[in-house]
Amino acid sequence: QAKNNGRNTVHFYSPPDVSDTINPLDLEIHLHSAIERNELVLHYQPKIDLEKEDIIGVEALIRWNHPKWGVVSPGTFIPIAEESGLIIKIGEWALREACIQNKIWQEQGITGVMSVNLSPRQFQKVDLVETVERILLETGLQPSLLELEITESMTVNIEQTITTLQRLKKLGVIISIDDFGTGFSSLNYLKQFPVDTLKIDQSFVRELQTDTSDATIVKTIIAMAHNLKLNVVAEGIETKEQFAFLQQHLCNEGQGFFFSQPVPASEMQERRLEIKKLLKTQRELLN
Ligand code: C2E
Ligand code: MG
Ligand code: MG
Ligand code: MG
């Protein structure tokens, strides 16, 4: 499957997903032993400060390398994990792994924020805050270098959401709302939630150049975030035109294939250098 992004055409090859051929029950059975068999890995996607044009952190994105089926995408197995309850174990593994990795990077002199996705079931678990606190203590990671991404759909019980968020904030971690604009976002709740960041969903970024309503929505979310003193991030930046638009409209941060796809930790150093080069070239073209 090739995607055409206008002038700078980029091709992303996506092999057929196992969800087309393997039934969910088999996936679930195999998922049970995936952690023990070391089949789960985290990839990391760099996040860029659009004003300073510098890498400021990464988002951890889970991958499942099945020995026979190959790579199973989180879009396929996270819903199964969520439904079966396996997400608790998998989510805790991912959180610990991400904190360990960020601690390693920090000790190497690369300080940045590590963002980790939480799914609804993880967020609603009564001992979430204790788990996060314990993992921070175990790994020795500074809480301010951990960001937790939640989605609007998690906020079924408003009172409980506020309490959990307040307790997480007290630990010192950063909270962001992922896929913002796609869920049920009452502005009243947004006002009450102690969150730090809004992540504009990639569906709005995709058509930025061609769909004037998407462009308006993006500008509006940025303005609203700033008025509420929130940081705003754009996901799914694939072209230099999208990058330029978001920079021009003062979006604080961005991530997407234009800068880098998610990569294993071992490739991050190389990726950082490539991004620095890319940003330098972009600047020179403008001057
Ligand atoms: P998300 O948190 O919204 O992550 C962004 C998704 O967009 C990732 O897909 C990422 O690879 C992809 N992406 C990044 N830049 C671009 C771009 O420029 N263009 C396009 N087309 N896509 C881009 P991925 O890795 O397949 O993850 C899908 C979702 O699975 C994530 O969405 C997140 O909700 C969930 N997920 C991933 N890892 C974890 C995890 O450790 N725990 C939990 N609970 N959920 C996870
Ligand atoms: Mg995310
Ligand atoms: Mg997410
Ligand atoms: Mg998202």
From TrEMBL:
Keywords: Coiled coil. It comes from the Bacteria. Transmembrane segments: none annotated. Residues 24-276 form the EAL domain. This is Diguanylate cyclase/phosphodiesterase. It comes from Halalkalibacter akibai (strain ATCC 43226 / DSM 21942 / CIP 109018 / JCM 9157 / 1139). The lineage of its organism: Bacteria, Bacillati, Bacillota, Bacilli, Bacillales. The chain holds residues 412 to 698 of 698 of the full protein.
